[in-house]
Amino acid sequence: MNSSTPRPAKFANPDFVAPAVHAYVQELGYKESPILERLRLETANHPRARMMGDPSEAALFKLLISAMNVKRIVEVGVFTGYTTLAMALNLPDSGTIVGLDVSEEFTSVGKPYWIEAGVENKIDLRLGPALESLDKMISDGEESTYDFAFIDADKVNYEGYYERLIRLVRQNGIIAIDNVLWSGRVVDPKEQGDDTVALRQINKLVHGDVRVEHVMLPFADGVTLVRKK
Ligand SMILES: C[S@@+](CC[C@H](N)C(=O)[O-])C[C@H]1O[C@@H](n2cnc3c(N)ncnc32)[C@H](O)[C@@H]1O
C-alpha cells in the first residue's frame, strides 16, 4: 500500500468513538512505515490478532520517545512485537528496549521484522513471567534507570507491574498503561470480570497516587500516561 492509499479501518471501533471519527483518525491521524504495516498485516492473520496494540498508540509512543530523548524502555507484553518495533525504530543506536513476555511463539513472529529493520540489537527480549523479570531488574540495581515503560500484558497483574515500574523509571520518566477503558467496560457496573475489576483498580490507584502526574487519553482502548514526579 502506498502512502496515498487510505489505510483500511482495521481496528475495532471503540464504543466511545463515533465510527466516522474513528475512520478519519485511522486515515489521517498518524503515519505508519511500510515495515510496521507488513508486521501489522501478518499479525492480523494471527488467531490472537486482537491483542495487538492500536497503531495510533504506537505512533504516540514513537513520537514521545524521540521528543523525550528516550534511551531505555521496558515493555511488559510484546505479543508479535509491533509496538516493540515501533519504539525501537525511534530509539538511538545506543538505546535499549527490554521486552517482557511469556510466549516464544508470539514473539517469534516479530523477530524477522526486527532484524530486517536493523533494530534487533536494541531489543532485549526476556521470556518468562513479567513480575519475575521486573523483580530481577530491581535486584540487579536498575532502579530509576528507565525513561519509558509500557504496560500491556495480563490485566490482573497491572498493579504489580505498575508498582515495580514506578521504581525502575527515573524521575520525569513515563509509564504508559494500555486498555484502561477496556472497550468501555470499566464504566458498566454489570461487568465484574477479573480483568475489568483489575483495570478499575489500577485507574483508581493512579488517580490517587501522589508520586505521579497522569492523564487518561480516551483513544485506542484508553491509554493513561503517567509521569513519575
Ligand atoms: C496485549 S498483548 C501485547 C501487545 C503488544 N504490546 C502490541 O501492542 O502489539 C499481551 C502480551 O502479554 C503477554 N503476557 C501475558 N501474561 C504475561 C505475564 N504474566 N508475563 C509476561 N507476559 C505476559 C502475552 O503473551 C501477550 O503476548
TrEMBL record:
MF terms (GO), sorted A to Z: O-methyltransferase activity; S-adenosylmethionine-dependent methyltransferase activity
One GO term (biological process): methylation
Cross-referenced SUPFAM superfamilies: S-adenosyl-L-methionine-dependent methyltransferases (SSF53335)
One Pfam short name: Methyltransf_3
UniProt xrefs under PROSITE patterns: SAM_OMT_I (PS51682)
Residues spanning the membrane: none
Keywords assigned: Methyltransferase, S-adenosyl-L-methionine, Transferase
Family: Belongs to the class I-like SAM-binding methyltransferase superfamily. Cation-dependent O-methyltransferase family.
Xref: PANTHER family: CAFFEOYL-COA O-METHYLTRANSFERASE 3-RELATED (PTHR10509:SF14), O-METHYLTRANSFERASE-RELATED (PTHR10509)
UniProt protein name: Caffeoyl-CoA O-methyltransferase
Organism: Cylindrotheca closterium
